[in-house]
Amino acid sequence: MSKCARCGARKGKRSCPALGASICPVCCAEERLETIPCPRDCPHLASEYYQHRRRRERAFSRGRDFVTWNAKHFPQEIAREFAFKLQADIYYYERAHGVVDDAVVADALDDLAESMGKIALAQRASSPLGTFLKERLTDERRYKLPEAWNAEARRDAVQALSTRVRSLEAEGAGDPASSPKRRHSEILQSFFGNLDFEADLDYSPEDGPEAPGTRREDERPERPERPGDLPRSAGGIITP
């Protein structure tokens, strides 16, 4: 599959009649009628706004536990954005490789926190999930954060997520019917499972980390939000 004719970074999954080439869902969603002169009969134009709003409503309704917990434990927007992205990474990994037990998720987060420490420690062998999360944090565009929010603050956020996952495991330990060892995955599914990762989250990790300045959005002003848009951070990803 060829690269998007607009950003040149993601895969071109949609045929754009205005450009006569394939573009990615993100560029299609963000640039239609802004920098792309979409014809009225474009099949991607008619229902996109409606579907975008519907996905948002389902995610915030069905994922209420996810949204509420993140808002309570990460009142600072920058911390909430960081934690949101990390949880999106975990969900994406599980969607691609299968759901993992809560204990495995917590261990991967602990491993990640240790790797972010100032003092080099003897690292445990990383699980496939732990290795994936470490690689994702090397994506400077996705995890670009103000210098004032230092590595210690990031590590605290990771450890808070680990504590959350272990508490979920403990809560359901006596009820095997509820799949207690995978409660965290169920909560992530309730929110992220209702969204389109590329169109709603600007998320396509299979393309690999992107360096700053490789996308057109780095060179043009951000378009104003439209009614029904998901709230976005400066990095492009929605934050509840």
Describe the protein in words.
With 240 residues, the protein is mostly helical. It has a domain at 64-193. It is 47% helix and 2% strand. The protein contains nine helices and two strands, in the order E-E-H-H-H-H-H-H-H-H-H. The chain has helices at residues 25-31, 48-62, 64-73, 77-97, 102-115, 128-136, 151-171, 183-192, 197-201; strands at 14-16, 21-23. A two-stranded antiparallel sheet has the order 1-2. Helix 4 packs across helix 6, helix 4 packs across helix 7 and helix 5 packs across helix 6 (128-136). The longest helix has 21 residues, at 77-97. The radius of gyration is 19 Å and the shape is globular. The two termini are 33 Å apart.
Briefly, what is this?
This protein is mainly alpha-helical and 240 residues long. The protein has helices at residues 25-31, 48-62, 64-73, 77-97, 102-115, 128-136, 151-171, 183-192, 197-201, and strands at 14-16, 21-23. The protein is globular.
Key traits:
mainly alpha; globular; two-stranded antiparallel sheet; single chain; 240 residues
Write the layout of secondary structure elements.
Layout: E1 14-16, E2 21-23, H1 25-31, H2 48-62, H3 64-73, H4 77-97, H5 102-115, H6 128-136, H7 151-171, H8 183-192, H9 197-201
Antiparallel strand pairs: 1-2
β-sheet strand percentage: under 5%
Helix percentage = 40-55%
- Determine the mean pLDDT: 79
Amino- and carboxy-terminal Cα gap = 33 Å
